[in-house]
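ugh ok fine here u go
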Amino acid sequence: MTLEERSNLVLAFAQVLFVNGQATEQTVTAAEQLGRTLGLRAKVMPRWGNC
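structure:
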């Protein structure tokens, strides 16, 4: 799995959690943990609105 594929997987995972009602902090923590498991140094920074 390429770096881009692993990164996209982490982002998709976070999106699914958030859309399905997971609390923001729990979503961030879970996504960062998945990133570490996949060998990434992931830092998830949530944002709201059209920024």
